[in-house]
Amino acid sequence: MNSTNKTAAKLVGVAVLMASLSFAAVPFYDWFCRVTGFGGTTLVAEEAPDQILEQTIKIRFDASTEVGMPWEFKPSQRTMTVRIGETALAFYEAYNPTSRPVAGTASYNVTPDAAGGFFSKIACFCFTEQVLQPGERVEMPVSFFVDPEIVKDREGKFVKEITLSYTFYETPLPEEQAALTTAADGKVN
Length: 189
Hints:
alpha+beta; Ctag/Cox11 (Pfam 04442); 2 domains; 5-stranded mixed β-sheet; 37% strand; flat
């Protein structure tokens, strides 16, 4: 093999390696954010900590939908003050004003970013896909707490207010629901 072929083979190898790494980057970054709370990604917990502090923190709730998502989506309350370490329960309301079933998935984050590693959800509507039937209105709960370790963190100890934001995106109906909808419309698959 001459030097031109060796160089070409090395360049193809580098291109394949770079393409492989680019596909791995998104899941790796998602995993990193979920584990560390980086970028305002919240954590998931089985239960709240044993320690509840007297110190409180204000939680703001925000809701939006992507362009084209037909749902109406809003928090049931705009703010809540909770003790750090205490389990809290908040609700969001979604309404499907259309004449068809619509499926959606919520993405979420908290701000400031420094709070992401200390804001944990125990249960949340955002963990699963939601399907609303025509005209259906639902209240969707989220159970959460702010970890007491926030008061020891060099950046977290200055956080006095956290905003929990959700954005709902329309997703394809689950196969079962899509088949029912198609059958009800009188269409043949």
